[in-house]
Structures are given as structure tokens and as C-alpha cells.
Design a protein that fits this description.
Structural class: alpha+beta
Order of helices and strands: EHEHHHHHHEEH
Mean pLDDT: 96
Number of strands: 4
Number of helices: 8
Shape: globular
Radius of gyration: 16 Å
Length: 191
């Protein structure tokens, strides 16, 4: 059985779009999914990426156009300017890792949190939001911050080593697919 390594960041609307599509792909194809949240700041630092606010105005405006197009195409209505973006996603990442560890629902948790941030204007760093997500998924335990941070650091290092430079990224064997709009190529790789 093939494995798909999925690298993402909860602060990325593109990762939300990818996760929603990946869930659909997963229902139609047989593969093991490895859910890998990463440290986006480190990834950008080490691979030449720029945080949104440091990008040129032209790139920032184009991003908004593309987000609108993809939001409409995928039927995922998002807020282009969420109230709590960018946010500290450390506790939310711990939820994703905990959901994956306990029940294999890391992808579903990432979608739920991503929808909170991008569709519902939730503060995904708020303790009440974290508690509600843990309850929603029936988590018995949440990884502590040092464990979660160590896993994210390891995931980020692996992604860089494998040639990744942005999110979302999917890796199948030696093939790297960057961007939520590369799912067709991912499906071909799985066939």
C-alpha cells in the first residue's frame, strides 16, 4: 500500500483546502496517510520563502484573488481576512497530533481547526476553543507543548530534507507535490 506524507500549517488557507480535498481522495483510494504539521517560519527561513506580510503588494493581491477562486471552486467559504490570523497554532498543532495518535483523526482535526480559523473567525489559540475541539474529538489526552514542538521540528526537518519548501506538500515515495492544486498529480502517483 502506498503512503502519502502530508505536510501542512494550520495558518495556511491552502492547507485547509488541501485537507478537505485529501479527505475526499482518501475515501476513493487506498493509501496510508501520514499527517505532519510543520513550523512554517523555519521552513521559510531555511528555503527562501517569505511570510505573507513581507511579500510584494502584487503577490498579496493575487493571493486574495486565488483564494476567492479556489474557495468558490471547492465550495469552502472562507474569510479572506480572519480576525485571528496569523495566530499561534502551537496548542492546535498539539490537538492534531493527539487526534492522529489516539484515533487516526489528525486530518479531520486539522480540517475542524482550519475551518474554525478560516471560516468561523475562531481564535484557535484560545483555551476554550482548544477544549471544545478536544471534547468534539473525544481526546483523552493532549500532547504537551514540548512533545508537540519536538515533533513539528522533526517534521519540518524531514520536509526540508525531502525537497519541500511550502505548504501544503504531499510526498509519495520520491515525488514531491506542492500546493493544494496538485491533487490530480497525487492521485496519478497513487494509481
Amino acid at each position: 500500500m502506498a503512503s502519502v506524507e502530508y505536510y501542512f500549517c494550520l495558518n495556511s488557507p491552502w492547507s485547509l483546502f488541501a485537507a478537505e480535498q485529501l479527505l475526499r481522495v482518501q475515501s476513493d483510494h487506498d493509501f496510508d496517510l501520514i499527517v505532519n504539521p510543520i513550523e512554517i517560519a523555519r521552513l521559510f527561513d531555511e528555503t527562501g520563502g517569505l511570510p505573507l506580510k513581507k511579500r510584494s503588494p502584487n503577490r498579496q493581491q493575487y493571493r486574495l484573488q486565488e483564494l476567492t477562486r479556489w474557495s468558490q471552486r471547492l465550495g469552502i467559504p472562507i474569510n479572506l481576512h480572519p480576525a485571528h490570523y496569523p495566530c499561534n497554532e502551537a496548542f492546535a498543532d498539539a490537538l492534531v497530533l493527539s487526534a492522529e495518535k489516539e484515533s487516526g483523526q489528525g486530518l479531520e482535526m486539522a480540517i475542524s481547526i482550519g475551518r474554525g480559523l478560516w471560516c468561523e473567525d475562531a481564535d484557535i489559540a484560545d483555551p476554550d476553543f482548544i477544549a471544545s475541539q478536544a471534547e468534539k474529538f473525544g481526546l483523552s489526552e493532549i500532547l504537551d507543548q514540548s512533545q508537540s514542538a519536538a515533533i513539528l521540528a522533526e517534521n519540518t526537518g524531514e520536509l526540508i530534507k525531502k525537497g519541500g519548501f511550502g505548504v501544503p506538500t504531499f510526498i509519495v515515495g520520491e515525488q514531491v507535490f506542492w500546493g493544494q492544486d496538485r491533487l490530480d498529480f497525487l492521485i496519478e502517483a497513487l494509481s
